[in-house]
Design a protein that fits this description.
Blueprint: H1 2-8, H2 17-28, E1 34-37, E2 46-50, E3 55-59, E4 65-70, H3 73-78
Antiparallel strand pairs: 1-2, 2-3, 3-4
Length: 79
Amino acid sequence: MQEHFEEHGEQTNSQSAEEYLVKANKVINNSKALKKYETDEYDNDMVYYLSETGEIVFVSAEGYIRTYFIADDEYFERQ
């Protein structure tokens, strides 16, 4: 998580790894988030996406957050 925070923390306006995790969980728990599985070639992660903010979160089949960052609708559709 620390590595992903260092890579995407500024983009997600997160001041710490803890805040980054809280924000990612808010996307996951948002009833407006679009959800789908990635294709098998990508480990079948669950993808959560908020179109209004561009926030996207990838959660592994084991249930841990792989990454959280800002994307666009086209990126979500390709997953």
